[in-house]
Amino acid sequence: MMRWCLSFFLFGCLAVVNALSSSGNRLLVVLEDASEKSLYSTFWSDLKARGYDIAFESPKSDKLSLFDLGERAYDHLLLLPPKSKGFGPSLSPKNIVDFLNKDGNVLLTLSGKSTTPSAISSLLLELDLHLSTDRSSVIVDHFNYDTLSASEKHDVLLLQRPGQLRPDTKAYFDGEGVLAFPSVAPHTLGDNILIAPVLRAPVTAYSYNPKEETTAVEDISATGSQLALVSTLQTRSSSRFTLLGSVESLQDKWFSATVKAPGSGKETNTVNQDFAKQLTAWTFKEYGVLKVGKIEHHLAQDEITAEDLNPTIYRVKNETVFSIEISEYSNDKWVPFELPADDALQLEFTMLSPFHRLKLEPAYHTENSTVFRTQFTVPDQHGIFSFRVNYKRPFLTAIEEKHEVTVRHFAHDEFPRSWKISGGWVWIAGLWSVIGGFMAFVIVWLYSEPASAKVKKNQ
Amino acid sequence: MAESSLNVLLKGNTGRNTRGLLRIIILGTIAAAAVSSRLFSVIRFESIIHEFDPWFNFRATKYLVQHGFYSFWDWFDDRTWHPLGRVTGGTLYPGLMVTSGVIYHILRFLTIPVDIRNICVLLAPGFSGLTALAMYFLTCEMSTSPSAGLLAAAFMGIVPGYISRSVAGSYDNEAIAIFLLVFTFFLWIKAVKNGSIMWGALTALFYGYMVSAWGGYVFITNLIPLHVFVLLCMGRYSSRIYISYTTWYALGTLASMQIPFVGFLPIRNSDHMSALGIFGLLQLVAFADFVRGFIPGKHFQRLLTTMIIVVFGVALVGLVVLTVSGVIAPWSGRFYSLWDTGYAKIHIPIIASVSEHQPTAWPAFFFDLNFLIWLFPAGVYMCFRDLKDEHVFVIIYSVLASYFAGVMVRLMLTLTPIVCVAAALALSTILDTYVLATPGPNPKAKVVEDASSEPLRSARKPDVGVTSYLSKMVVTSSVVVYLLLFVAHCTWVTSNAYSSPSVVLASRMPDGSQHIIDDYREAYYWLRQNTPHNAKVMSWWDYGYQIGGMADRPTLVDNNTWNNTHIATVGKAMSSREEVSYPILRQHDVDYVLVVFGGLLGYSGDDINKFLWMVRIAEGIWPDEVKERDFFTARGEYRVDDQATPTMRNSLMYKMSYYNYHTMFQGGQAVDRVRGAKLPAEGPQLSTLEEAFTSENWIIRIYKVKDLDNLNRDHGNAVAFDRGHKRKRATKKKGPRVLRTE
Question: How far apart are the first and last CA of chain B?
Answer without folding.
Answer: 118
